[in-house]
Amino acid sequence: MRPDTPAENVDHTAEAARLERTAGLYPEDAETLLLRAAAHLELSGDRPAATTLYDRLLSSAEGLDNPALVRALKASNLWEYGHEAEARAIIEGIRTTAPRDPAPWVIVAEALESHDELEAAAKTFSEAAQLLLPDSSEEPPPATHPLLYGRHRVRRMLGLPHDDWDTLADTLHTSSVTLDELHDPKRVWSLGSDNPAELEAEISRLRAELGAYREALSRPFPVAVLHWPAQELSELLSAYPTLRTEYPSHAEHLSAIESALRELAASGTPNLGIVTGTVPSYEAFAASEGASPEDATLLPQYATTLAARGRAAAWPPGRGAGCWCGAGEAYADCHGG
């Protein structure tokens, strides 16, 4: 989420201002754009201004897609410029509310870790793993991998023995350098060594770690399937009845989404997601393409555009999460059953 371009190559203040202006033009994407703007402000060193953006989002009349993520980022930022008590209070609140998204957990655990609260960080990572990781018979979704890696790293620094989750983290990690090596506390000592062989070995480890980080950052946006809520689909078909051939009924539409995603997963396609359409947004997209909304070939293009704008929700939902269809039931008891 956070830009990693060095400050000397980017005017982070100007980029933050540009993103704020863009958020004003596209309010439906304001949450994503303002979070990026806040990240640029943090990189520029203007942490109070970043906090102002986080507060702006949290006080917005519009519902946030991920309020726990915004609070976690705010807590991490506050701690970096001296507001430790407030940051700790926010972190405790996140742990109490137990969000079903791994990202807030990773951010607050890493905030604790960066301030040498290793035992608290390990406990936070473990709480998130207990809540979000599937049963041992299932492979954890990619979004939860940072939880396992972070937990492994902190426990390694604490000198704790491997447990089943640490072993799972080792299994998921595909770099040529093992997690045990990457997370070895003695690496810090080798960086200060006068021995060229030790320094060369550490440089190799750092290159492997940087390669894995870049791979995560460059992961493309999800392969997304378009979902229409019942009311939106009804409005769409009333306005453009020729699309009924694509959507005979809402129930069939929902079943087709789940079937398509399962087929993609079975074929080995990674990084799957679901984007939710709205009629005004679809009409605007059709206009931008110079085409009629009745053109069914626009539908997959519209889904791809929404995914590229960060509007995709990962599929399948995490352990205990609600179903993507919006019925209010757990995924396992609904379309995941």
From TrEMBL:
Entry-linked Gene3D superfamilies? Tetratricopeptide repeat domain
- Show the InterPro entries listed in the entry: TPR-like_helical_dom_sf
Can you tell which superkingdom this protein's organism belongs to?
Bacteria
Q: What protein does this entry describe?
A: SEC-C domain-containing protein
Originating species: Streptomyces bangladeshensis
